[in-house]
Model the fold of this input.
Amino acid sequence: MRSTYSRALQQNFLFAVFAVTTMLCAQAFSASETVLHSFGPAGQDGQRPFAGLTWHNGAFYGTTDGGGPHLVGTVFAIKLVNGVWREKVLYAFTGGADGDEPRSNVSFDKSGNMYGTTLYGGSGGLGNGVVFKLSPSNGAWIESVIHTFAGGTSDGYWPAGLIMDADGNLYGNTAGGGTHNAGVVFKLAPSGNSWKETILYNFSRAPDGGGPSGDLVFDAAGNLYGTTAAGGTNANHNGLGDGTVFRLSPNPDASWSETVLHSFGAGDDGAMPLAGLVLDAAGNLYGTTPYGGGTPEGGHGTAFQLSFSNGSWTETVISNFTTPSGGNSPQSPLTIDNAGNLLGVANGGAGRYGAVYQLSLANGTWTHIPLYSFPDTASGVHPTGKLVLDNRGNIYGTTIRGGDRNFGVIYAIAP
Done:
């Protein structure tokens, strides 16, 4: 039986997205939104695109954690054809050995194969999740499962998204499982016609963190950075801890060493980061927390920066989500534009359906700028995934609710 820690972590991981504010604000926004696709109907199209979009070879690709013929999720593509955005379901999961409820983004290798994870599925009962591969073949996509998570002490369960190195190896983390049932970081390496999994690190909750649920990021030296939603040195939230930012560094003997760069939860700091990090050209790390900020007792979330100087890392809260128009409870990663601004999405907003915001640095001070508030259900409700920008400054993303059938939308926002 999975521990109380794991059940509490799953609740935070799966349902934090639904926390919204009830306050309203009359501020107007100049940006305009276009709904590119509304998901549904049930049993045909996907439902609830929890993750963000991936741009590849002239189209956006993504996943939904519901919908399709078996109601357990899809992989889709959306492409502009003769001035109209056309969405197509590339694969529908069955909920069995092939996977169940994909909630992460997808990645591509140099040959055009697509990789992703499902939260559940695989062998045995509900399953612990899988890593899947989709390969293009004669206009169709063929799925193969390259790893089924075993859970227990030897493997993880509930995987987040994947990243790929230059050699085609895949890296990711799981929110549960491992030696201490606090999650793992894993590597999948192609080996002939199969893939070999290596557990790079087992989390133990304190002091190193527990329950990593956001995607990893590489730096130029090959170090991996990520967040944990629980654990660390501040034993808040019923002793689970408020989470950490960590680094994994490769050693000459092929092992990996973990370093905690920051433990959340002290004073007015953020708490329980659910999303991964973004790294700028100077080596600074940025992320969000859906809780904390403002007061030690809690708040509506933060955006934070971690900077390395004089041999140590320093965390700074660069925005507290305190105004209705700016959103609240951000659980999604940030995106950096060409000017160095940070863009993200949050719940709340002027119409309480969700908000897109920008953080801009000037004279050493970060300013939180509301860019767009979703005005009604038709425009989308609860934006979740990481934003994608084009070279004209247009913003693309997804919401898990709203649209014509309330199953979520793909949207574009023109500044």
